[in-house]
Amino acid sequence: MVEFYPPNDELLKKTPLNSKFILINAAVLRAKKIIENKILMAMNYKLNKPYERALEEIYNDKVKIYLKEAPKKENIVNLIAEQYLQ
C-alpha cells in the first residue's frame, strides 16, 4: 500500500466540515500566493510543487482554514421565498 504525504485523512481533520472541496480550494489559494509572491513559510518542506507545499503547510498547522459565518437555514428559505413570491 502506498502511503501519501501529507496523509489525506489527517488533512481532512484540519478542514472545516471535513470537506475535500474546502481543502482543495484553500490549498489552491495558498499555492497561488506561493507562486505569485515566492513567499514560503519558515519550515523544511519535503515536497517541491507549490500545491503540494500548500497542503504540507496545512498539515503542519502553518496555515489554518477558516470559514466565514455560514448563512442560517431560515435566512436561505426566506431569500428563496422572496425571489419567487414577488
Key structural traits:
mainly alpha; Eukaryotic RPB6 RNA polymerase subunit; 86 residues; 4 helices
Question: What's this model, at a glance?
Answer:
The chain has about 90 residues and is an all-alpha fold. It has 4 helices and no strands. It has helices spanning about 10-15, 20-35, 50-60, 75-85.
Description:
There is one protein chain. The chain is an all-alpha fold. It has one domain (8-85): Alpha-Beta Complex (Eukaryotic RPB6 RNA polymerase subunit), CATH 3.90.940. Helix content is 55%, strand content 0%. The protein has 4 helices and no strands. It starts with 7 loop residues before the first helix and ends with a helix.
Helix content: 40-55%
CATH architectural arrangement: Alpha-Beta Complex
> What composes the largest sheet?
none
Count, helices: 4
Secondary-structure map:
Layout: H1 8-13, H2 20-37, H3 50-59, H4 73-85
